[in-house]
Design goal:
Helices cover 56% and strands 11% of the residues. The chain has 248 residues and is α/β, with parallel strands linked by helices. Strand 7, helix 12 and strand 8 form a beta-alpha-beta unit. The chain folds into 2 domains: 117 residues, Rossmann fold; 116 residues, Rossmann fold, CATH 3.40.50. It starts with a strand and ends with a helix. The chain has a 4-stranded parallel β-sheet, with helices on both faces. A 4-stranded parallel β-sheet has the order 6-5-7-8, with helices on both faces. Helix 5 runs antiparallel to helix 6 and helix 11 packs across helix 12.
Length: 248
Amino acid sequence: MRVALFATCLVDQAAPAAAVAAVRLLRRLGVDVAFPEAQTCCGQPAFNAGYHDEARRLAEHHLGVFEGFDHVVLPSGSCAAMLVGHYPELFERRPEVYAAARDLAARTVELASFVTDVLGIEDVGADLRGTRVTVHDGCHALRTLGVAEAPRRLLRAAGADVVEADGHDVCCGFGGLFAVKMPEVSAAMARAKRAGIERSRAEVLTSADAGCLLQLAGSLSRAGRPAPRVLHLAELLWEGVERAEAAA
């Protein structure tokens, strides 16, 4: 199985450790992972802003970048949803490209779902026993891709105590351009999320979406109170792998 990692521009610029952890985790599970260096932004910011021609150029670029791979795996529900949900939409009036967009969408998988649903693995060899974890469900991962149980299955298999925060499936308010254009509303949504996270008494807040984690980490830090560690799911699982290997 030949897999390409689509790191996404947000992970590349703001959370590169998540991409590194994802590659290490997948290789540990026996996956042949490549990182095509021609990859760039998936086009979601342009698409969401209504600049569909610009988004279309980026999408067409990636049809070539990821040609020939069995799967394209993303440590981001948001960007995975762009490829799965909107790339074919962008080419509905271009039949010569539409089939390729549909093909790429069919090969695109969010990281946790790839491990549990494609590889059929739940126990990745991580040890998170004694760690109280709460999961934030990113809007795109949950509503476009239907990803909810996969990260929880991986965490529970690692021995983590998974607790559900009030509003775990409610939008964090990031939304990319939304957070920039409507900062007051965005911050208010994050504060509502923060309250539920704090009540969960979790030691770690995790998600498969770097944008959501940036938003929530910022809100938690501004509260000036003790807060859980904020880690991408790939980073948290890899920490557990290193812990298990150190104890072996």
